[in-house]
Amino acid sequence: MKRQNGLLKIALVALIAGLIGGGGAYYGISYFQNNDIINQATAIPSGSNNGGTAKVSNVKVNVQNQSEKAFQSVKDSVVSVINLKRDSSSENPFASLFGGSSSPSKKGTLEANSEGSGVIYKTSGNAAYIVTNNHVVAGSSALEVIMSNGKRAEAQLVGRDTMTDLAVLKINSSMVNKIATFGNSDNIKVGETALAIGSPLGSSYASSLTQGIISAKHREVQVPSNGSSAGNIANVIQTDAAINPGNSGGPLINLAGQVVGINSMKLASDSEGTSVEGMGFAIPSNEVTKIINQLVKNGKVVRPVLGIEYVDLTNIPSKDQSKVLKLPSSVHTGAVVMKVVQGSAAANAGLKQYDVITSLAGKKITSQAQIRDVLLAQKIGSTIPVTYYENGHVKTAQIKLTKQSSNVNFK
Predict the structure, then answer these.
(1) Long-range CB contact pairs, 265-268, < 8 A, 24+
(2) What is the DSSP letter of 375?
(3) Burial class for 151, CB neighbours closer than 10 Å (0-12, 13-18, 19+)
């Protein structure tokens, strides 16, 4: 019995081994057979290629959204502004020796010096008016604009203002078929969509559109020094819509297609050289309209001034606020008078160095930029109340406003 069991085990093992070996042989044969079938099925077909032609589907997808509608309503009013300068190297250096003039203002070839953007905001008769940045047109010998359709037109400078970095140009209205409208910049909200239109890196990229949001409504930034406006603080709209060189002077619009700001500058790095992204700034439309109306009327902006230099109280260390300014602990905001021009409106009203202005024309002063905003709303010759602290004592006075001096550092 044991022997039979042993033979049975051997037989079973042999049978299993046979099945395994047979299975392996079976699957091996199947694999080669199937491979032959695959090779035949995927062989490159011969014959004509006429069946490989394609066509575009006539199915239309409507992806229009509010951003596109806003862009379409404004884009034809946006232009590229070309700053042309005479090339003095093409002049005859000996012209003055023979009674000629070597002045670069009338001789030399006009060449593109820089490019920016602008927006047509009004037509009147055969004239059309464009707002742009002062730094776009500064130093030009002549100006030219390129319309959204590529046509060129000669432009004339109506007026410019270094303090707000705004300028107005005039062109013939014959080529204008669209003008932009200004919205109320006081109504914008942080977080709402903002669109920037312009010519980044020049007219080759004209009518470029970027989208972002309103990052801040009232941001105080130092205006880059360009000689006369050094030290000026601008109250601007901050946006993360991409603003690049060439976008300057173009519009920042809302989703209704209204211009709520004029793009002016961007912050690329901080004082320590750290690179930053998405920090562009635009001049609010409410300020833009006030300035350009004066430029159209007078060719310049005539401002009432106090006749002082000042800094924000928050820039003064707390120990100096207490020991030097002698302010009570309840006072946290205001503008510190650093210098008073002799014979100025502020001097005549009794203001002195280290006085702290906390209210002007009935408006509380919480930052130094507010003084400029208050003054822009006043007329020369008007009298406004001022509240200030002198040696820790609160005082009030009446200031009769005078014209701006040639030195714009004094406000």
Answers:
(1) 265/165, 265/221, 265/223, 265/224, 267/221
(2) H
(3) exposed
Residue 15 tokens, joined: 């049978």
DSSP 123-135: EETTEEEEEE-HH
The CA-CA-CA angle for residues 323, 316, 303, to 5°, reads: 120
As given in the structure block, the two tokens for residue 52 are 């490989």
Tens of pLDDT, residues 233-266 = 788 999 999 999 999 999 999 999 999 999 999 8
**Ordered DSSP codes for 251-293:** EEE-TTS-EEEEEEEE--B-TT--B--S-EEEEEHHHHHHHHH
Domains and CATH numbers, the chain: 66-91+106-175 (2.40.10.10), 185-298 (2.40.10.10), 304-403 (2.30.42.10)
**pLDDT above 60 for 10:** no
pLDDT, tens only, 167-179:
999 999 999 999 9
Q: How many CB atoms lie within 10 A of CB 397?
A: 15
Residue 41: strand, helix, or coil: helix
C-alpha 145/C-alpha 78 separation (Å) is: 10
Q: Which residues are catalytic?
A: 135, 165, 248
